[in-house]
Predict the structure.
Amino acid sequence: MEALRIIKDEHRNLWRIAVTLDQVIGEMERNQKADPAFLGSVLDYFEHFMDGCHHRKEDDYLFRLLRQRSPDAGALLDRLQAEHRNAPHNLAALRQQLAETVAGRSSVGELIEALRLYLDDQKAHIKAEEKDIYPLASQVLTAEDWAEIDKAFLDNDDPLFGKAARAEYRELYHKVANLAPVSVGLGASSAGELQSATAALPAADLLLKVDHLESCYGRIKALKGISLEVRRGETVALVGANGAGKTTFLRTLSGVQPMSAGSITFDGEDISKVRSDMRMRRGICQSPEGRQVFGPLSIEDNLRLGAYTQPKGQVEGDLEKIYTMFPILKEKRKLPAGTLSGGQQQMLAIGRALMGRPKLLLLDEPSMGLAPLLVEEVFNVVKTLKTQGMTIILAEQNAFSALAIADRGYVLETGNITLTGSGRELIADEQVRAAYLGM
Ligand SMILES: Nc1ncnc2c1ncn2[C@@H]1O[C@H](COP(=O)(O)OP(=O)(O)OP(=O)(O)O)[C@@H](O)[C@H]1O
Ligand SMILES: [Mg+2]
């Protein structure tokens, strides 16, 4: 039922955009102005992603099989599929309305009304699917049905569902996040601290202290003043939606992404101006987003690369330690890294970071793109490292799993930290549950 997880994730992102759009409509009402770039990119997102991709795969696989297994569901499926069919037409009308308003031929009020109607329809549609269709599908579809559906949803070479479509969708989502007004977060909007204990930390316990860190891509400010602390031995989760700035933050910490303001103190020293290779030498090691193993190089050579800042004498011993931790890497050590499965490549990426003898290990979405069982395995690895005393920052969209093993967490939203607390407190927080845990 991997497909259901994918669909629900997609709904969650759609819902976040809908909530953001709701808030923007509120602002439009107050100042009687429309932002064509933001609204245009939201409509692009709906067109490419929802109408072009999400609806089609539901129609072609899930709904088709559900019709066969549950004739009673026919009427509801008819309705939902009619909505799928009408969606492009409704969207085109909305674009037309936007153009008319921008050209001054129609009022902002009319655009607001059209947007509201459209959003209400979208939300009702998502709710009907979540409330009626998926529970039914979980009951009546057979294992073979799910195999067919899951295969279609997980096919990485399919231009509609595969990697390219997801990359395009992420990019669109990032664009919407970038253009959204500052006052509107994509997700929880409550700023605050659930726990103030960090203020009283003895300085010696602090491994990392980040103050008002900013970082930009050209004119886009991706980090808008991040402050956080990590104690020795702590596992700190950094959670947030697509485009929140998790990757940018980790890359700024390791020094591969420049910072434009603020400071980073590591192990008692200000390292803000220290080059990335020297930061690695001091013990900041990163397992990057998307793993980025060197496919043609052997697994062992990939691991050796992780130790390039380390004294030669310790490398063989460290390799053995990594092999003990990940026997599969030892078994395949002579093979090109590209031959490993996604989960194994993730182990390799973590192993490579460990070869740098980290004092602070940065893990960027280690669970990304992995099947549920493998996700669990990856989080088990993180747990093991934690029990061994490693200090870890774990950036994850998979907020629940990350917060569940973290001592503390920070919620990141469009470049700002909006909430912090212990992992348990954040999991219990209503806003976090609604925005990130889908509950
Ligand atoms: N190379 C780049 N050029 C321009 N903008 C970028 C670049 N990389 C990221 N951004 C923007 O910076 C913001 C933060 O992106 P970042 O990748 O750090 O987020 P993230 O939280 O890691 O998201 P994801 O969960 O998708 O990995 C986004 O708005 C994104 O569009
Ligand atoms: Mg990222």
The radius of gyration is 23 Å. The first helix runs from residue 2 to 31. DSSP finds 16 helices and eleven strands in the chain. The chain has two domains: 2-179, 192-437.
